[in-house]
Design goal:
Strand content: 25-35%
Strand order of the largest sheet: 14-13-10-11-12-15-22-20
Shape: globular
């Protein structure tokens, strides 16, 4: 077995690979950029080598620097993780030439499957069902319009070297085809150094289901079930699960056998994933093959008991697979949520900053793959994913319920994040029913994410919990609890929403009467704790807590509730207080995130129309198109291409 391997990656995936290597008794080498100096992955490894500036194009993507690090440390093999150089044929070739093992597939598989156009042609030849489209390269925006018209809208404009949702755009008309072509091309250059674009038919309302394959160098190849990856935003996966609630054994077998056939066609060896889109009629079409470890691989590990990283290392060393297809069994259910540094309340814009607080949930059926810790810096240079939260259960319902509890207990402070959004999706009736498509988020949150409206019984339970918190907090302030219990209170959010609550002191908690019903709250919570764990009417609940300016803020199931707990007389007076009105910023185009201006597409004095593209901002390797909300005239341009801006910096001013 290898004695030392280098992980050519960063963040959670580098940490994940290091853990398996350590369990196998293999020493590890981390590489890090200036931005990652002191990062968790470099501290976990036995050795760490600095490889350059913060920008990935000057560090993690420089092949020679990775090979030099191997030679410097004596690493015998390289695990590339995902992203960066993981599917780069030139990297695999360079390692081979240097006598360093690549923990991944052979050159034939990388070359044929890494090119989306070549892979589709090969899949066709292998008898794999594929999506209709044009597999010739697109020359320019007008060529994109022509081909899109021939295929028929809607179409998917895709980077040939793409992956991870980057370099992909859906176009519904000629204008979107032109705009999508240029954005996909720009992202492809930025992320992959390859701007080749092709176009295929966009299948409406599909599911995205992928098959995990595992193959050795001795001709053995198996599939380890499927993963449901339909919950996506902008073609980036958000929540995955295994198995899929849609597949039966017959369809699983058909898709698995096609995936294995494709892997054999390219002499595949290592872990790999064949992605399909699946129609409501159970028809399925080959999408692409990822010749690397997938982000969402933990859900497969939990239901099969197979450590995919360990298997990749053993296969690269030349060992035979001990598993045969008949040995693969799927037990229980696993769900994975991707935690991103982004603000769902502001259109999912990327967020950067220092993690002031970072508390991960724990439990027998909870797994957290992360590459950060409290105090870590989230920068604009890399992908915004900061962790993967994975939960397991005997059934899908159990796994989802466990996920809800774990998200309630996941504390992230200092940056904007999507924990509440993930919780909202997991608690959504449609998600729980398993009625999923890749359009789920767009359909259920057409105006973006603005928060969660809880069912009345849950809301009332949390209101009662807020009363308990307020009473115990007051007790610590040396106020007389006896005067505050056994009396009436008003629990309100603003001036429009309030509940009358009558409270009785009970050992271990309170009994709160709301709308004629008794809510029994029992909790060991004490002032100073940031989480409130309670049993409410016999049900265990957890909420994150913040106290400020007389407000008890509870975060639960994706909802942020800011309760004022007041005596009735005080509550009546509070209604008379004026409401602060936010300033009118409609005459400005503000930068919605820290990032770099790619282009400003209007000039001073130009008349603009609602929906018109005004500027493009790049952040965390993704382009964000800023459009006009209203008709108007540009009075001043404050920024140009290449400028780096902070949140709310003014890009344009309007008359």
């Amino acid at each position: 077995m290898f004695k030392k391997i280098l992980i050519a990656n960063r963040g959670e995936i580098a940490c994940r690979v290091i853990r398996s290597a350590q369990e196998m008794g293999i020493k590890t080498v981390a590489v890090y950029s200036e931005a990652d100096d002191g990062a968790v992955h470099m501290r976990m490894a036995d050795e760490a080598v600095h490889i350059g500036p913060a920008a990935a194009a000057e560090s993690y993507l420089i092949i020679d620097k990775i090979i030099d690090a191997c030679k410097q440390t004596g690493a015998e093999a390289v695990h590339p993780g995902y992203g960066f150089l993981s599917e780069n044929q030139a990297f695999a070739d360079a390692l081979d030439e240097a006598g360093i093992a690549f923990i991944g597939p052979g050159q034939k598989a990388i070359a044929s499957m890494g090119d989306k156009i070549a892979s589709k042609k090969l899949a066709l030849g292998a008898g794999v069902s594929t999506v209709p489209g044009n597999l010739d390269l697109i020359e320019d925006a007008e060529h994109a319009v022509k081909i899109s018209g021939e295929i028929g809208y809607p179409v998917m404009i895709k980077a040939s070297a793409g992956g991870g949702g980057k370099g992909m755009r859906v176009a519904n008309d000629d204008d979107e085809a032109r705009e999508g072509f240029q954005s996909a091309k720009n992202e492809a250059i930025s992320s992959f150094g390859d701007d080749r674009i092709f176009i295929e038919k966009f299948v409406v309302d599909p599911r995205h289901i992928e098959i995990q394959v595992l193959a050795d160098k001795h001709g053995n190849c198996i599939y380890l079930g499927e993963r449901e990856c339909s919950i996506q935003r902008r073609h980036q996966k958000v929540i995955e699960e295994a198995p899929s609630p849609f597949l039966d054994e017959e369809l699983r077998k058909a898709m698995g056998e096609q995936a294995v056939a494709l892997a054999r066609e390219v002499d595949y060896h290592s872990a790999g994933t064949v992605e399909f889109i699946v129609g409501a009629d159970r028809s399925f079409y080959f999408l692409e093959m990822n010749t690397r470890l997938q982000v969402e691989h933990p859900v497969t590990e939990l239901i099969t008991g197979v450590d995919l990283v360990e298997q990749m290392i053993r296969i690269a060393y030349g060992e035979k697979l001990e598993l045969q297809q008949a040995d693969v069994t799927l037990t229980g259910w696993a769900v994975e949520s991707r935690l991103y540094a982004e603000d769902p309340y502001r259109g999912f814009l990327p967020s950067i900053g220092r993690l002031r607080r970072y508390t991960i949930p724990k439990g027998e059926n909870v797994r957290v793959d992360t590459g950060v810790t409290e105090g870590s810096e989230i920068t604009m240079f890399y992908d915004p994913m900061i962790a993967k939260l994975v939960t397991y259960g005997d059934t899908r319902e159990d796994a989802i319920e466990e996920m809800g509890r774990a998200l309630d207990a996941y504390e992230v402070k200092g940056i904007a994040h999507n924990v509440n959004f993930l919780n909202a999706v997991c608690n959504h009736p449609r998600f729980k029913s398993g009625n999923l498509t890749t359009g789920f988020i767009a359909e259920e949150y057409p105006d973006g994410f603005t928060g969660v409206e809880l069912e009345s019984d849950i809301y009332e339970k949390l209101a009662a919990l807020a009363v308990l918190v307020q009473l115990r907090h007051s007790a610590r302030s040396k106020k007389k609890v006896a005067e505050r219990i056994g009396d009436s209170w008003i629990v309100s959010e603003g001036k429009e929403k309030s509940l009358a609550v009558h409270v009785e002191d009970i050992k271990g908690g309170i009994d709160a009467e709301i709308n004629g019903a008794i809510i029994a709250v029992r909790s060991k919570w004490k002032p100073g704790k940031r989480f409130v764990k309670a049993e409410i009417n016999g049900r265990k609940m957890i909420a994150q807590l913040e106290l400020f300016r007389g407000i008890v803020q509870l975060t639960h199931a994706g909802a942020i509730l800011k309760f004022a707990v007041q005596r009735p007389a005080v509550a009546e007076l509070a209604k008379l207080m004026p409401i602060k009105v936010a300033p009118d910023m409609s005459k400005y185009l503000l930068c919605p995130m820290p990032g770099m201006i790619v282009s400003v597409q209007v000039e001073e004095g130009e008349e603009i129309k609602a929906g018109q593209t005004l500027a493009v901002v790049e952040a965390m390797k993704m382009e964000n198109i800023l459009k006009a909300e209203n008709d108007g005239v540009v009075s001043k341009v404050n920024a140009g291409a290449g400028d780096t801006l902070a949140v709310d910096d003014i890009i344009l001013e309007f008359e």
